[in-house]
Amino acid sequence: MNTVRLHLSGLGLALMIGLLFSTAIAAELSERTDLSPKDKARVASVTRPTEDFSKAEAFELMQGGAGTSPRGVSADSFSDFSANITFAEEEEFKLGNALFRKLWVSSPSSTQASDGLGPLFNARACQSCHLKDGRGHPPEGDRDHTSMFFRLARPAATAEEKAKLERLEVASLPDPVYGGQLQDQAVPGIAAEGRMAIIYTEEPVRLAGGETVMLRRPSYSVSDLNYGPLDPTTVLSPRIANPMIGLGLIEAIPEEDIRALADPDDLDGDGISGRTARARDHRTGEIKLGRFGWKAQNASVRDQSSSAFAGDIGISTPDDPRHFGDCTVQQTACLEAATGVQPRLGDTEGPAPVLDLVTFYAKNLAVPKRRDVGNTEVLRGKEIFYASGCIACHRPKFVTSRKAENKAQAFQLIWPYSDFLLHDMGEGLADGQPVGDATGQEWRTPPLWGIGLTQVVSGHTFFLHDGRARNLTEAILWHGGEAEAARNAFAAATPEDREALITFLESL
Q1: CA 2 from chain center: how many Å?
Q2: Which of 96, 203, 394, 508 has the fewest CB atoms lying closer than 10 Å?
Q3: pTM higher than 0.70, yes or no?
Q4: Does the pLDDT of residue 8 top 80, yes or no?
């Protein structure tokens, strides 16, 4: 495709998307109760997608608002605390960081405040999966499986199970023997469940300008099962760990702003039909907007944290008091093992102060500042990103609620590049596993901030839910379903325009 033609048609598309967003913004702001009329006008203006790509936008450098990390590029770029938290909160953050990095041990142990691991588990510490607070990876060469695992789920077999799913009493149904997650590690004296097996098949994709890109299509299975076969209907869904930055800011986005972007019946005819996800709060049982996890299955950072404690490490907390983690009634040795509950500390292995501090840490990891926002090539790539329709799902900006729980996250202009909705991404990326409201082809739009620092922080460039994409180009080419038009625009662009778009993503 000729570059000029792409820009002409793309600018028309960008204008259309801008108009649709303006309508959505007006609708959402009319529902927000935290804003005065003057605030609503300011927010509507500042969050409207730009149509001027000749220069950087105001505050674009500070993509995490006033809390943006001022640190330069380094392996620790995702590990700073929000720049606008108080001095006292810095202490909470550092204590939470210590607990996030803490290695749990099996029970019984002389280190009573640290025992309770497993008995079946995937990791001994939060940091094991989120190394440097960054993105996980599939096993590659000598890389281990720690930051990637299989979710296990099966369809309802009875009317009662179907009703539980519909009422969101459970987000998914576990395998009868292996539970909701395949755990490849275990404490001494207990057998691990099995091991992840992956086979990749290379497939060529031809792009405009004569370039050929090889995509690797994964095939998943489990080897060395120690508790008998999986249920024949159980579906494997591989997941890599998500980056930890900006989670508190995401939680501070008003529900109204996200709901206003949903168009489940595609009434505007743009081919994008994002849906909100519902999630049940772990403490109150209340149904809330899901916004965390690959399928938006959790409503809060706290829920995400307590689920990881129990499911990944086997540590019970007040919000998810499973002392035996993901063990099932079929795994008797697991259920007979000692727990790490210390009555003098509380009735769970990770008492309330532990969960509180880890949650505070996770909510206050700063978003790194942008780089090269005024660079000509970055601005050109940004224009192509907008023109190709990418912002229909990767919405650039939000302003957080004035009523945010922590003042550090209140009324901040942030640039996550996500709408936090569920989208059908096509058969190529489908895992076939429904979770909550998400179907087997739907995924939550992941935020893009920090994506350009993946290599520096995490030491790799594996993307998507299972890390099959080895770089950003492959990640884009795997997009299908609602994102197919944007994917095709990228594939049909000139090599120079594709390179510019990637340069823009690398600046985030």
Answers
A1: 35
A2: 203
A3: yes
A4: no
Q: Note the pLDDT tens digit of each residue in 272-281.
A: 999 999 999 9
* 140 contacts 405 by C-beta, under 8 angstroms: no
Q: Which amino acid is at 210?
A: G
Q: pLDDT value at position 31?
A: 85
Contacts of 187 (CB under 8 A, 6+ apart): 106, 107, 117, 118, 119, 121, 337
**What is the CA angle 253-257-261, rounded to 5?**
130
- C-alpha 247/C-alpha 468 separation (Å) is 24
State the Rg of the chain over Cα. Answer: 23
Give the residue among 460, 479, 474 at the shortest CA–CA distance from 139: 460
Find the helix packing angle between 352-363 and 87-101, rounded to 10°: 110
- Tell whether the model's pLDDT for residue 7 goes beyond 50: no
**What residues contact residue 50 under an 8 Å CB cut-off, 6+ apart?**
57, 386
What pLDDT digit, counting tens, does each position of 285-296 carry? 999 999 999 999
Q: What is the pLDDT of residue 110?
A: 81
Helices marked H in 298-428 — which ranges? 301-308, 332-335, 352-363, 376-387
What is the spatial distance between Cα 7 and Cα 13, in angstroms, rounded to a whole number? Answer: 10
Q: Pick left, alpha or beta for residue 246 (phi over 0 → left; psi -120 to 50 → alpha; otherwise beta).
A: left
